[in-house]
Amino acid sequence: MKAAVTTKAGEPDVIQIQEVPKPIVKDGWVLIKIKAFGLNRSEIFTRQGHSPGVIFPRIQGIECVGEIAEDPSGTYQPGQKVAAIMGGMGREFDGGYAEFAAVPIHIVFPFESNLPWDVLGAIPEMFQTVSGSLNEALEVKAGETLLIRGGTSSIGMLACQLAKSMGLTVIATTRNPDKTDHLTANGADHVLLDDGNISIKLKALFPNGVDKVLELIGIATLKDSLQCIRPKGIVCMTGILGGSWTMPEFTPMGDIPSLGRLTVYMGDANNINKELLQAFIDDVAKGAININIDRAFQLDDVAEAHAYMESNQSKGKIVVLTS
Question: For residue 134, is it within any domain?
């Protein structure tokens, strides 16, 4: 089969298209004929060598959608449409950057849909991350105010739509003034230009602070985001768009405001189920949710897609089609 193999840690050009053996399916696993997969920021860090335990060469990819090719257990029939996410994909074992992938059956979710594969490919990991961040970590409720730090990312764009559908007021940030209209069109009530310190600007709008913050930039803006919440408000750090994992200095009894709450979301397949995924796909099909796909690449062009994602030009999800 054809696969985009990350041969070693490095720049995007370490990803090379190769012919490799089709995976052999073992007990408790299934073989998926991949139709599409979304790219994720975490895959940049894996490619750069920052994901502990990853051994190269490796076929990356923490998600995919496609059809069942083999299932020794008989749980799924050949041709059943499925999504697979996380569970070690693309890190502990070969993942979705290929024509076929063998994955544990417990990270597989069946669905029915006539949506095109590029749209379906954008959904699994994005939906899991947004749903888990908003509902599990932040426990958002109608009438609350939500600041999305990193609003033009695919996660930020979907989080805004879901939060608005749940009755929240949304403030989204961007570093690029050319993207403000894009955020407003996506449903944001307020857009703030982010220079790394927006707490003063935000409190001009909401003097007591906001109820919740979805932090997608990471440690570069985390301390400032903590200054944006009201007493007993919550900041959830879900993303690391800023590119750094570790904060050199952090003083909990200074950087976290009194009664403020800080959590993280590092979700996996256990945070969704087939019913939630199917309901979301149905909402997309009905037009209740708009999936922002910035650009679709072909499997031969995964290295180019990585470079594009790393350039921060995109205004939505980047998807790769296998044919």
Answer: yes
Asked if 12 contacts 40 with a C-beta cutoff of 8 angstroms, the reply is no
198-234 confidence digits (pLDDT tens): 999 999 999 999 999 999 999 999 999 999 999 999 9
Look at the block and give the residue holding tokens 């006539």: 114
CATH of the domain at 100: 3.90.180.10
Q: Is residue 77 part of a domain?
A: yes
What does the pLDDT look like over 148-184, one tens digit per residue?
Answer: 999 999 899 999 999 999 999 999 999 999 999 999 9
Range of the domain at 144: 126-264
Residue 209 falls inside a structural domain: yes
**pTM attached to this predicted model:** 0.89
| Cα 12 to Cα 293: distance, rounded to the nearest angstrom | 21
Q: Nearest 5°: CA angle at 295, between 99 and 316?
A: 115
Phi-psi category of residue 261: left, alpha or beta, with phi > 0 → left and psi -120 to 50 → alpha: beta
- Listing DSSP states for 154-200 in one string gives HHHHHHHHHHHHTT-EEEEEES-GGGHHHHHHTT-SEEEE-SS--HH
- What is the C-alpha separation between 315 and 139, in angstroms, rounded? 26
Helices (H) and strands (E) in the chain, counts: 10, 16
Pairing of strands 100-104, 29-38: antiparallel
**Residue of 195, 160, 159, 200 whose CA lies nearest to 177:** 195
Phi-psi map region of 10: left, alpha, beta (phi>0 left; psi -120 to 50 alpha): left
Domain count, the chain: 2
